[in-house]
Amino acid sequence: MNAILYLEDGTVFRGKGFGKKGTTVGELVFNTSMTGYQEIVTDPSYAGQIINMTYPLIGNYGVNKKENESKKIYARGLIVKSICENPSNYMNEETLSSMLERMNIVGISGLDTRSITKLIRNSGTMKCVITNEDKTVAELEEYIKKSDSKINFVEEVSTKEIYHIEGKGHKVVLMDFGAKANIIENLKNRDCDITVVPYNTSFEKIMEINPEGVMLSNGPGDPKDVPETVETVKKIVKAKPTFGICLGHQILCLTFGGDTYKMKFGHRGGNHGVYDIERDKAYITSQNHGYAVREESIKDKELIVTHINLNDNTVEGIRHKVLPVFSVQFHPEGSPGPIDSAYLFDKFIDSMNNVVEKKAI
C-alpha cells in the first residue's frame, strides 16, 4: 500500500502503509527508544498522538500479549523507517503490523524518521495525517482542519468502573488517568491490595475504600484538562501518603498551587538522564510527556525539587516538606536499567509503613 504522511506545516512524506488500511490524524511526536515498541504503542499516555520512532528497525522481535501496557492502542498511528514482517524471538506471537491491523491503527514505513524528528525539534510538535488510501494532499489538509483538539483523553483512557486486585499488604488506591499495566505489576510485586478507580472518583468514595496510600498514575494530555481531579487530590494529600507518576506528578504540583506548561517537543524515550539530588546519583530513565512543571511556580510552595533532567534541567521530581507526598515526571515502572528506579515504589511502601508506625505509637 502506498501511503502519505502530511504535516500541519505542509510538509509531505511518501512511503508504504502497514497495519490498518485507512486515514488517521493526531499530534506528531517522536520516541528515541531502541527497544520496547510494543510497550510504547500500548501506553495509554499516547492517546491522540502519532508516534515517530527514531530507531530505524521496528518490529524485529514481534509482539506478544504479555508485554502490552493496556488492552488496546490509544495512539492514532505509527511512523517507522523499516517495519519487520519476519520477526525472530521465542516469545513472538504475531507481527507488529498484524497487531496494528487487528487494533485498527494506521502505520507508515519507508520514511526518514530522523529527519522528521529534526523537523519536530526545530518547529515543535504539530498535527499530522497518515493515509494509505487514495486521498489527495488537499483532502489531508482538510482532515487536519476538521480534527478535534479539545478531547479529554484522560476520560477516554481511564477505567470506567472500580475494580480490585487482592493482596495481603498495604491497601492502595490507584487513580487511573491511563495507568500502564506495569505500575500495577510493581504494586502487586510488593503484595499491595490494589483498588483501581476512575480519574473522576470523588474524595469521599476513595475514603470509603479506606486506603493506606494513593497512587496517581500516568496519563495523556494536559493536566489542566482535569480540574475536578486536582480538587480531589487537594483533599487526598492531606489524608493519605501519595505517590504521583508523570501526569500524576503534574496534577500533584497543580494541587499545591504550581503551574505546568506545554513543552516544545517533550521527552519520549528510554534513555533520558535524570539527577536525583537527594541521592546525589544520576539515572537513565524512561519518559513520555509533553508537559512539565514550571520550576519557579513551586519555589514559594511547601515543595522541594528532588530530581532534575540532565538534558534541559526541567523538574523531574518533587516531595512535600512535611506531608508523605512525592512524585516523579519519569516512569520508574518503565524498567529503565531495568530496576534502577524501582526504589521509588519502595519509597511509597515506606511512606505507608511510617504512617502505620506513627498510629501505633
From TrEMBL:
The keyword Translocase does not apply. It comes from the Bacteria. Gene3D superfamilies: 3.40.50.880, Carbamoyl-phosphate synthase small subunit, N-terminal domain. CDD domains: GATase1_CPSase. Belongs to the CarA family. Composed of two chains; the small (or glutamine) chain promotes the hydrolysis of glutamine to ammonia, which is used by the large (or ammonia) chain to synthesize carbamoyl phosphate. Tetramer of heterodimers (alpha,beta)4. This is Carbamoyl phosphate synthase small chain.
